[in-house]
Specification:
401 residues, OB fold (Dihydrolipoamide Acetyltransferase, E2P), seven-stranded mixed beta sheet, 19 strands, globular
């Protein structure tokens, strides 16, 4: 009996994936629930497991192919005894086409409020920067299908082609950009192109938090089974500041502003395939231990490549910590459609004025990048001041003041 291997549901608004890697070759034995193939979406990589035991009889979608939800990836001959996995010889490298040149001017608007697009068509329209109002829909009720969008893309004048491709060098290696890395690049550029982005800075004395952590970290870890880090202090400090300044927790949707009455904080995590931002939800209702546990769990899932699409969706505000890599100061880029992001940095001892004395204190620079269309400078500065106050007097977090 032959069992089909199909592309599973990939998550909200995700309709396509790239076949990243086959773990089995045709004819090899597969066990029930054994990973067979890895798919890569715009957001995460996920494995497709065998639903039956047998042998992989046919691979239909080759590595590098783009597949939609429900598409056929391959087939398993249920109950068959396949061969054991053998070491795979390195496949010959395919000749890479020269990268297209960047367009000299920005393309037309991507979407139109009057156009009715299928999810797959919307992705093509956004990626190719097409004007949906000029595409003739052939679907039901004039809906624009993926085929309509692809046809419009092919009819669009192509970007200028360079006179000659860049010559290859024996000391260089050209590899295709992963879908995740492409999506990261697109979102970062989208933020710069869309938002009126500005960054404001402050600095915070970490002495009080470091002393508090030093006093209680052993008991905290014994009781809760997780180390007490700095991130939970900043999460709680940001939640308090967001309650006072709701615009920093909002987003722009067309001509409307959406104010969020929930505090789902994205924590930027560096994973092997790129930066990801899993979301710790309802941080206002969670204690320090729960927040630390969830951050640690997300970090492990990111390193193992096991983050689910749902783990990355729905954040209202983001915190990124470049200090773990030694960054002293940076201007983080906001995570659309959010309106702001807090950047933490390395803790360095510096001489500062304390009253009329100069003392050496562990200091950290804070950076808040924000969308000036929604957040005014007064609100941005006040937000950082509130975070600074909470970190320098952590008892404020316990008293919710």
């Amino acid at each position: 009996m032959t069992t089909d291997i199909q592309v599973p549901t990939l998550g909200e608004s995700v309709t396509e994936a790239t076949v990243a890697k086959w773990f089995k070759a045709e004819g090899e034995a597969v066990a029930l629930d054994e990973p067979i193939v890895e798919l890569e979406t715009d957001k995460v990589a996920l494995e497709v497991n065998a639903t039956v035991a047998g042998a992989l009889s046919k691979i239909i979608a080759a590595e590098g192919a783009t597949v939609e939800v429900g598409a056929l990836l391959g087939q398993i001959d249920e109950g068959a005894s396949g061969a054991k996995a053998a070491p795979k010889a390195e496949a010959p490298k395919k000749a890479e086409a020269p990268a297209p040149a960047l367009a000299a001017a920005p393309a037309a608007a991507a979407t139109s409020g009057d156009a009715i697009l299928s999810p797959a068509a919307r992705r093509v329209v956004e990626e190719e920067k097409l004007d949906a109002s000029k595409i003739q829909g052939t679907g039901k009720d004039g809906r624009i299908t993926k085929e309509d969008a692809v046809a419009a893309s092919q009819a669009k004048p192509s970007a200028p082609i360079p006179a000659a491709p860049r010559p290859a060098s024996e000391r260089e290696e050209r590899v295709p950009m992963s879908r995740l890395r492409r999506r990261i690049a697109e979102r970062l550029k989208e933020a710069q192109n869309t938002a009126a982005m500005l960054t404001t800075f402050n600095e915070v004395d970490m002495s009080a938090v470091m002393d508090l952590r030093s006093q209680h970290k052993d008991v905290f870890e014994q009781k809760h089974g997780v180390r007490l880090g700095f991130m939970s202090f900043f999460v709680k400090a940001c939640v308090n500041a967001l309650k006072e300044l709701p615009g920093v927790n909002g987003e722009i949707d067309g001509n409307d502003i959406i104010y969020k009455n929930h505090y789902d904080i994205g924590i930027a995590v560096s994973a092997p395939n790129g930066l990801v931002v899993p979301v710790v939800r309802d941080c206002d209702a969670k204690g320090f231990a729960t927040i630390e546990k969830e951050i640690n769990a997300y970090g492990q899932k990111a390193r193992d490549g096991n983050l689910a699409v749902g783990d990355l969706q729905g954040g209202t505000f983001t915190i990124t910590n470049g200090g773990v890599f030694g960054s002293l100061m940076s201007t983080p880029i906001i995570n659309p459609p959010q309106s702001a992001i807090l950047g933490m940095h390395a803790i360095k001892k510096r001489p500062i004025a304390v009253g009329d004395e100069v003392k050496v204190r562990p200091m950290m620079y804070l950076a808040l990048s924000y969308d000036h269309r929604l957040v005014d400078g007064r609100e941005a500065v006040t937000f950082l001041v509130r975070v600074k106050e909470a970190i320098e007097e952590p008892q404020r977090l316990l008293l919710d003041i």
